[in-house]
């Protein structure tokens, strides 16, 4: 059997960087056609010393999930457009990474330095429904969105206020927080307002206003709940002691050339941005 005939009996895969194979199926296939090709491919990949198999089934190929599981595959994760299954066929312990385990949230400390007021909202639904608590605008960072971009977007969506990113003041993590499974990482970002007229989001926000920062900090909720007290006091400290510095962003690229942001101490971020393109020295 020549290579062309052999390939027609196998599922077409692309090697990954870790000794595995990625298979992306997008066209309809019957179970009768799929199962023999999968079994032959598993034998072939095993003989080639392949370790892990990533089997991506496009939306509409749900008929292939059960047959794949019958051949040892397990569901890794699912999105609207596809279902991803994996199989580890090497004799060594699996090194396939688990599904994404974290959700990224952002909160926005939007400070009007002239009036010493902070932008706050009351939510229609959720944990704070009916509490009367005034809170910072918050939300979840979308897929493919940078942390600072998520903070700007959430503020504008909820209040209509346009802002500029200043820095990350702090972050916290909480395990088994989202769906009682995923870890939630929350970044508190300082933003500088460039507009001041509030136009609240009617679907999610009950009310929005500029509040004196001391009044925000001294709310009973913030004083009784330790984490909220810590974060509120941090915002107050930032106003009173501007030398408190968080993390600013530096635009850079990954080793593969993709745009990325490095967050580091504001003084050093300013230095990196000012000396961009210059060779580093040891002093």
Automatic annotation (TrEMBL):
Pfam families hit by this protein: NUDIX, Nudix_hydro
Keywords: Hydrolase, Magnesium, Metal-binding
EC number: 3.6.1.13, 3.6.1.22
First-level EC class: hydrolase
Reactions mediated catalytically: ADP-D-ribose + H2O = D-ribose 5-phosphate + AMP + 2 H(+); NADH + H2O = reduced beta-nicotinamide D-ribonucleotide + AMP + 2 H(+); NAD(+) + H2O = beta-nicotinamide D-ribonucleotide + AMP + 2 H(+)
InterPro entries found in the cross-reference section: NUDIX_hydrolase-like_dom_sf, Nudix_hydrolase6-like, NUDIX_hydrolase_CS, NUDIX_hydrolase_dom, Pre-Nudix
Gene Ontology MF terms: ADP-ribose diphosphatase activity; metal ion binding; NAD binding; NADH pyrophosphatase activity
Cofactors (names): Mg(2+)
Coiled-coil annotated residue ranges, if any: none
Superkingdom: Eukaryota
Function: Mediates the hydrolysis of some nucleoside diphosphate derivatives, possibly using both NADH and ADP-ribose as substrates.
Protein family membership: Belongs to the Nudix hydrolase family.
Protein name: Nudix hydrolase
Source species of the chain: Arabidopsis thaliana (Mouse-ear cress)
């Amino acid at each position: 059997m020549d290579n062309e005939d052999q390939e027609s009996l196998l599922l077409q895969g692309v090697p990954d960087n870790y000794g595995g194979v990625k298979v992306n199926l997008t066209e309809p296939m019957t179970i009768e056609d799929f199962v023999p090709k999968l079994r032959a491919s598993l034998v072939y990949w095993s003989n080639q010393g392949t370790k892990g198999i990533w089997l991506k089934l496009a939306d509409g190929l749900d008929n292939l999930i059960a047959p794949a599981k019958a051949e040892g595959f397990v569901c890794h994760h699912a999105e609207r457009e596809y279902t991803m299954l994996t199989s580890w066929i090497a004799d060594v312990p699996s090194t396939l990474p688990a599904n994404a385990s974290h959700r990224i949230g952002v909160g926005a400390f939007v400070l009007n330095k002239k009036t010493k007021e902070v932008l706050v909202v009351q939510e229609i639904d959720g944990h704070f429904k009916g509490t009367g608590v005034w809170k910072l605008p918050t939300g979840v960072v979308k897929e493919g969105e940078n942390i600072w971009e998520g903070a700007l977007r959430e503020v504008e969506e909820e209040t209509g206020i346009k802002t500029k990113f200043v820095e990350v003041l702090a972050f916290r993590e909480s395990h088994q927080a989202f769906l009682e499974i995923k870890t939630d990482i929350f970044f508190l970002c300082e933003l500088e307002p460039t507009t001041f007229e509030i136009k609240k989001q009617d679907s999610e926000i009950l009310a929005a206003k500029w509040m004196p920062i001391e009044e925000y900090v001294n709310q009973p909720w913030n004083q009784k709940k330790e984490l909220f007290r810590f974060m509120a006091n941090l915002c107050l400290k930032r106003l009173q002691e501007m030398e408190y510095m968080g993390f600013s962003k530096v635009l850079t690229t990954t080793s593969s050339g993709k745009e990325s942001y490095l967050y580091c101490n504001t003084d050093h971020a300013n230095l990196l941005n000012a000396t961009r393109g210059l060779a580093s020295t040891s002093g």
